[in-house]
Predict the structure of Metalloregulator ArsR/SmtB family transcription factor.
Amino acid sequence: MKLEQAAKQLEAIGNPTRLKLYRTLVRAGEAGRPVGYLQDTLGIAASTLSHHLHRLILTGLVTQERQATTLICRANYPIMRDLIGFLADECCADAACGAMESDAA
């Protein structure tokens, strides 16, 4: 994953409403949730929900699928795992260096 892509995704979920929306979709599993359910759960206007969903879709964190007259939203789990992996990939990579520096001080 590229740094720019990760930054855009983190920026998208950096808004409290979008983060709550995203967490709702993550909790829903592969079945996802209809837009109407999301609107009721979050208690926001349809236009506001549409705006927030659009931001999450643009970054690939969320997908949508029309089933007859219902629009189903889903967390894009492979993209989520990529982002989590990007954040954790270099966890403690410099820990040995930091330990040596503090020992020398």
About this structure: The radius of gyration is 18 Å. The chain has one domain: 3-104. The first helix runs from residue 3 to 12.
